[in-house]
Amino acid sequence: QRERYVVGLDIGTAKVCTVIGEIGDEGGLDVIGIGSAESKGLKRGVVVNLEAAVDSIKKSIEEAELMAGVEVGSVH
Hints:
The protein is α+β, with helices and mostly antiparallel strands.
C-alpha cells in the first residue's frame, strides 16, 4: 500500500518547522499542513537539552497536524 502523506521536519537553531504534504493521484504533492515552534535545547546545531528539543519538535508537529487534520506517524 502506498503512503498517502509525506512529512518533513527541519530542526534549526532558531526554529523547528514541519510540513505535511498529501500525494495526489497523479503524483503531485499538495501542502496541507505547516507548523513551527521556537527551537529550544539546541546551540550551534548541537542538542544541549534533549527534553527542551523534543518539546519544540512536538509543538511544531502538533501545529501541522491540527492544520492538516491528520496524525503524523513518522517524518523525513
